[in-house]
Design goal:
It is a single chain. The longest helix is centred in the first third of the chain and has 25 residues. A five-stranded mixed beta sheet has the order 4-3-5-12-6, sandwiched between helices. The mean pLDDT is 90. With 301 residues, it is of the alpha/beta class. The protein folds into two domains: 74 residues, Winged helix-like DNA-binding domain superfamily/Winged helix DNA-binding domain (Arc Repressor Mutant, subunit A), CATH 1.10.10.10; 217 residues, D-Maltodextrin-Binding Protein, domain 2. Helices cover 47% and strands 21% of the residues. The protein starts with a helix and ends with a helix. Helix 1 crosses helix 3, helix 1 packs across helix 4 and helix 2 crosses helix 3.
Length: 301
C-alpha cells in the first residue's frame, strides 16, 4: 500500500466527502477518487459505500482506518527524525467548540500559522461527547474540551484553565439591578436564552433549574454565542455564557452581569487519545496551547 493512497483514504474517511478531501489535500477531485479506487483495487475490497451524494465507510474501511492513521503518524515521525527539529511538519485535526475557537484559540492558531507553516491545521467544531469519541477513534488528533470533569476514559488531558461563567442580561432587565445573593429560585420564572443542547454550560444550567421544578426549563435557542449575545442585549432574556465571551460587552455596558454564582465549575482542557504516539508537531501544539492559555489567564483576558 502506497503512503499517498493511505493519506488520501484517511482524509476522505475523516471528512466523509471526496470534494472536501480534495480541497484540503489540494488535489483535483478526480485524483482523490482515482487514488481511493486504486487502494480499493490493491486490497480487493470496497472501502466506502456510495449513497448518492453521501458516502460512508464500509466494514473494511472501518478496519483499515486506525491502521492508516498509525502508518501516517509513523511516517511523519520518521520524517521529523530524519529532517531534524528545525522544521516541524504534518497535519493535525483539531476538535473544538465554538466558544473556544472564537475566544481562546486565535493566538494559538496564529502562532502555528506563522511559526510552523508546514503544520496543516484542520478545525472540526463539535462538543463534549462528540469530541471525546472522535479522539478515542482517532478521527481527531487533539481536542479542546470545556467540562466539569477533568478525567476522561481512554484519553489523556491537561487542564488549561478554570473557565468562569457569568449570567448576563440587558442593562434594563428587572434583575440587572438586584443586589448580590441572587438564588437559583429567582430564575425559575425568567425567560432563558441559550445555545443548542449539548453545550456544557447550557446543560448544567438547565439541570440546576430542572432540579427545582422537576422539568426542563424552556430556552429560546440561538445557534451561536454571537446570536445569543445579541438576543440578550435586545431584551429577550438572560443567558449563562463564558466570561471570556462577554468581556467586551460587559465593559461597554451592552450587557449587564447578574448577581448569581453558578454552583458548578467548568475547566478548559486539551486532550488526546491515551497511548497515542505524539509526533513532534502535536507535542509542540499541546505545549503552545498550555502556555498561551496560561498567559491569557494571567493577563485577565
Amino acid at each position: 500500500m502506497e503512503l499517498r493512497l493511505l493519506v488520501t483514504f484517511e482524509k476522505v474517511a475523516t471528512v466523509l466527502s471526496f470534494t472536501q478531501a480534495a480541497a484540503e489535500l489540494k488535489y483535483a477531485q478526480s485524483s482523490v477518487t482515482s487514488q481511493v479506487r486504486a487502494l480499493e483495487s490493491s486490497l480487493g475490497v470496497e472501502l466506502f459505500d456510495r449513497l448518492g451524494s453521501r458516502i460512508r465507510l464500509t466494514e473494511a474501511g472501518e478496519r483499515l482506518l486506525p491502521y492508516a492513521r498509525q502508518i501516517i503518524e509513523l511516517s511523519e515521525e520518521a520524517r521529523a527524525a530524519v529532517v531534524g527539529a528545525e522544521e516541524p511538519a504534518g497535519s493535525l485535526v483539531v476538535g473544538t467548540m465554538e466558544s473556544l475557537t472564537s475566544y481562546r484559540l486565535p493566538p494559538l492558531l496564529e502562532l502555528f500559522h506563522h511559526r510552523y507553516p508546514k503544520v496543516r491545521l484542520s478545525l472540526r467544531t463539535t462538543i463534549g461527547d462528540g469530541t471525546r469519541e472522535a479522539l478515542r477513534q482517532g478521527t481527531f488528533d487533539v481536542g479542546f474540551l470545556m467540562e466539569p470533569e477533568t478525567e476522561h476514559a481512554g484519553l489523556e488531558s491537561k487542564v488549561l484553565t478554570p473557565e468562569p461563567l457569568v449570567l448576563v442580561a440587558a442593562p434594563g432587565h428587572p434583575l440587572a439591578g438586584r443586589a448580590p445573593g441572587m438564588k437559583t429560585e429567582d430564575l425559575v420564572e425568567v425567560q432563558l436564552v441559550g445555545t443548542e443542547p449539548g453545550c456544557p454550560y447550557r446543560d448544567l444550567f438547565e439541570s440546576e433549574l430542572a432540579h427545582l421544578t422537576g422539568q426542563a426549563p424552556p430556552f429560546m435557542e440561538f445557534g451561536t454565542i454571537e446570536a445569543t449575545k445579541r438576543g440578550v442585549a435586545g431584551g429577550l432574556g438572560v443567558a449563562l455564557l463564558p466570561r471570556m465571551a462577554v468581556g467586551a460587552e460587559l465593559a461597554s455596558g451592552a450587557l449587564a452581569e447578574l448577581a448569581w454564582q453558578p454552583p458548578f465549575q467548568l475547566y478548559t482542557q486539551v486532550a488526546w487519545r491515551a497511548g497515542k504516539r505524539l509526533p513532534r508537531h502535536l507535542t509542540l501544539f499541546i505545549e503552545a496551547a498550555v502556555r498561551l492559555v496560561q498567559e491569557q489567564t494571567a493577563s485577565g483576558s
